[in-house]
Specification:
By secondary structure, the chain is an all-alpha fold. 66% of the residues lie in helices and 0% in strands. The protein starts with 8 loop residues before the first helix and ends in a 5-residue tail after the last helix. The N terminus is likely disordered.
């Protein structure tokens, strides 16, 4: 998925465990060994177990964490109340909600643009062009990987992976060997491409909005990210069969206004970046302004589709149906930007709400200070940041990165770039480690599986290690 994640920098500091002050002593209260703290951890673990088992339970991942968030904060409030502090819990949860609100609005604007481009057949036209060119399987392997790497920095990795996988399945057909390695290649490329752009992944967006890494500084991760994809891709390319399937005759035209929407999306990103870099405004302001531009342009798309040049209403269906017209859905629907908003990944947005509040609650109880001391002081920043990527292969990288940002360990700029890289690409180690991998297991069900991906994990791990080595090599001055 994707695109497809944006935190308020000033408010994040207030979430640090050290900022959870008791009103009666001016010092942080440690609840990690209390019944309230232990109960909160148990609730979070149970909720996240349900998230991990989503594929088997068929329970949307947002549901358990939203409930867990509410219960955890009730425990936080009661814990502080027992010490006579009736203010800390309320103030802390308000900061959490403020951070989430900014992330939510940013993601909603980005998702609406992506959904609009999809509705205008922008992505479908690209897919049709690829499957009708008559490329060899090896060329398709490299092209889909390359496109996934360069599209995911702007679109979310989920959308990118699904688009490229549709090409692979259409061209590869029953050639399971090709489909497997091509799907793995797409997952690795989409995750790697998202790591060097603030818009490529929710985790990179969080780092950018907190102000730890500036927009232009993310591009220092371009070469390490490229290496992360190229190393396993090179090994896997030798397994691609040498064949040239018959081209599929398919032509898809981009709907009216599709290319203008792409331009508006680019302008929206410029507004977000410029406002943040030069005016020190939160990026969400630029994104929401751009969403307003899309809504205005959507009005003209709708008028174009609804009316003839002479002002008369299009659609013979209405004439054919007569009095029944208001009661029957027409075969052709005009553009409606609110349909694009409705199709946003609401489960992901609600999941992040639960994650932000759960992690913030555990931080207020003192657990993140405990973890930060064990990892970043006990193991050192380099080892800890490498482990963050490995953990991201099992646990979603969103709560992992949010926890790191909330801990706010004292690290060099190069180490912050390292954890941004590892959190972004670590999920490629396993098929369940990223939204792109999980989505492709569903799209290529029975072919691209957990164990099929696992057979190539050694090559992906080599790419993971190589990208870290290259980062230390070319960004040594920042370490």
């Amino acid at each position: 998925m994707s695109l497809i994640g944006r935190l308020l920098s000033a408010a994040a500091i207030a979430l640090l465990p050290s900022a959870a002050w008791a009103s009666n002593g001016g010092s942080a209260i440690d609840f990690t060994t209390s019944a309230f703290g232990i109960a909160a951890v148990v609730i979070f673990v149970l909720a996240y177990a349900a998230v991990i088992a989503e594929e088997f339970l068929h329970l949307r991942k947002s549901k358990p964490v939203m409930i867990a968030a509410g219960v955890i904060w009730i425990l936080v409030a009661i814990a502080y109340a027992t010490h006579g502090d009736m203010e800390t819990a309320g103030n802390a949860v308000r900061h959490n909600i403020l951070e989430y609100a900014e992330l939510f609005l940013f993601l909603l604007a980005a998702m609406t643009y992506i959904n609009t481009m999809s509705e205008r057949n922008v992505f479908e036209a690209l897919r049709a062009w690829l499957v009708s060119r008559g490329f060899t399987l090896r060329t398709i392997f490299w092209l889909t990987g390359l496109l996934a790497f360069f599209i995911s920095p702007v679109a979310d990795n989920l959308t990118t992976a699904l688009l490229m996988a549709a090409v692979v399945l259409a061209v590869g057909g029953s050639n399971t060997t090709f489909v497997i390695v091509a799907c793995i290649n797409i997952v690795v490329a989409a995750n790697a491409g998202g790591a060097f752009s603030p818009f490529g992944d929710i985790t990179t967006l969080m780092v950018w909005q907190k102000g730890i890494v500036q927009f232009q500084e993310f591009f220092a991760l371009f070469i390490p990210s490229l290496v992360n994809w190229l190393v396993p891709a090179l090994f896997m390319s030798f397994a691609v069969p040498k064949a040239r399937p018959e081209p599929l005759r398919e032509e898809v035209r981009v709907k009216y206004g599709g290319f203008v929407v792409i331009g508006l999306f680019g302008l929206t990103l410029v507004l977000a970046v410029s406002g943040h870099n030069y005016l020190h405004l939160p990026p969400v302001l630029g994104m929401m302004t751009g969403l307003g531009l899309l809504k205005i342009y959507g009005y003209f798309i709708r008028r174009h589709e609804l009316y003839e040049p002479n002002g008369s209403i299009k659609g013979p269906e209405q004439l054919e149906l007569g009095e029944l017209a208001p009661l029957v859905k027409p075969r052709f629907k005009t553009f409606d930007v609110f349909i694009s908003m409705k199709r946003a990944e609401w489960d992901t947005l609600m999941f992040f709400y639960g994650v932000v509040l759960c992690v913030g609650g555990l931080g207020t109880l003192g657990y993140l200070a405990l973890v930060s001391e064990a990892m970043y002081l006990g193991l050192g920043a380099t080892t800890a940041n490498i482990l963050v990527g490995i953990i991201s292969a099992v646990v979603d990288n969103i709560p992992v990165m949010f926890a790191v940002l909330t801990m706010n360990p004292d690290m060099s700029h190069g180490q912050w770039l390292l954890v941004t890289l590892t959190a972004g690409v670590g999920g490629s180690l396993l098929s369940i480690g990223s939204a792109a991998g999980v989505a492709l297991m569903g799209q290529a069900r029975g072919i691209y599986t957990f164990f099929a991906h696992l057979k190539w994990s050694w090559a992906i791990a080599l790419g993971y290690a190589a990208s870290i080595w290259v980062h230390f090599l070319i960004n040594a001055n920042t370490m």
